[in-house]
Design brief:
By secondary structure, the protein is an alpha/beta fold. It is built from twelve helices and seven strands.
Length: 336
């Protein structure tokens, strides 16, 4: 017998709910959360650009390096994206942004820069030829600054030989007298070992570090962010249970102390509340619990927002069936 599956409005969300949820997602994602760190970074970036232009116009022109360092989810990329348009001396003509591929060899990095400049390579070339082309084409295009996001990918496996080649290449493009380049490298803290491994690189560099969130130091900041996104951006109500110091501490731990990750969790909780009860929903602990399980795929016992002994939970290992990946090995001949 043929059967036909049917659904009723009570069993499936309406099309308008999906559309309105998508509109809400776009509305809150388009808003930027500004903190004191933004002002400090923008000033450091402006100083870096000013010093670079001054050095390029001097008797001994050379480029410089700005390292923007922080853990994953710290908000590095967002902060740089917002700062760049407000910097005097940076424009679309002299500034190039790209993301380091992964994995990334010295050759792949050179090819990526050339492609971003509009000069893709058809055939394979030796490393030194590729970087000669990089030097020539950045000068022809008038590029003075390159922002390399996810710059830690360029470190490869971290062998001394690879790191030395990378440092020497960066030094070379910063030192070329006729057109010195300056680099903005953003990435994970491992970049520090790259910089401190060569005194000539370190002398030309400065570092802006995105410190992780800490409790109780950043409790007020986190509470302000929750209120700003829920009330001001989403025009929804924040439940009293998510306006406490303890909740701020939970959110800091759940986001692994990353400001950017904390902001993402707040936005996801808002969408969870909207899916549950529409625009009139009060955003509460359970909505953060739903956002957390959507991200972590954890059991209720390992959900930071649903248990009282949440401080025992380590978010990075709270996924269901989490186990370290192991490289497969071939069975030895004769093994049973």
């Amino acid at each position: 017998m043929d059967t036909q599956m049917t659904s009723t409005p009570s069993t499936l969300p309406s099309v308008s709910l999906f559309a309105n949820r998508a509109a809400l997602s776009s509305q809150i994602s388009d808003k930027y959360i500004k903190t004191d760190r933004d002002d400090r970074f923008r000033q450091d970036l402006q100083d870096f650009v000013d010093e670079t232009h001054a050095a390029a116009a001097g008797q001994h022109p050379e480029g410089r390096m700005l390292a923007v360092i922080g853990t994953s989810g710290a908000g590095k990329t967002w902060t740089i994206e917002k700062a760049v348009p407000r910097i005097t001396g940076l424009d679309s003509g002299n500034f190039l942004r790209l993301t380091a591929p992964s994995p990334c060899t010295l050759k792949q990095l050179g090819r990526t820069i050339l492609e971003s400049l509009g000069y893709p390579l058809i055939r394979d070339l030796p490393d030194h030829i590729i970087w000669e082309k990089v030097r020539r084409h950045v000068k022809e295009r008038g590029v003075r600054f390159i922002w390399l996001d996810e710059a830690h990918h360029t470190m490869g496996r971290g062998s001394d030989f690879e790191l030395t080649r990378l440092r020497d290449t960066f030094k070379s493009i910063m030192q070329q007298r006729d057109w010195p380049l300056s680099l903005i490298l953003s990435g994970l803290p491992v970049l520090s070992s790259f910089i401190c491994g060569d005194r000539q690189v370190e002398r030309r560099s400065q570092t802006f570090r995105f410190a992780p969130l800490a409790f109780p130091h950043d409790a007020v900041l986190v509470q302000d962010i929750i209120h700003g996104i829920v009330v001001n951006h989403a025009s929804m109500v924040a439940g009293s249970e998510i306006q406490t110091d303890e909740f701020a501490h939970r959110l800091i731990v759940a986001s692994e102390r990353g400001l950017g990750s904390a902001i993402v969790l707040v936005r996801r909780a808002i969408l969870a509340a909207y899916s549950r009860a529409g625009s009139g929903a009060m955003v509460g602990m359970a909505d953060f619990g739903q956002a957390y399980v959507d991200e972590r795929d954890c059991s209720p016992e390992d959900n930071i927002f649903l248990v009282s002994d949440w401080d025992r939970i380590v978010p990075s290992v709270s996924r269901l069936d989490a186990a370290p990946l192991q490289a497969s090995s071939r069975k030895r001949r004769g093994a049973k």
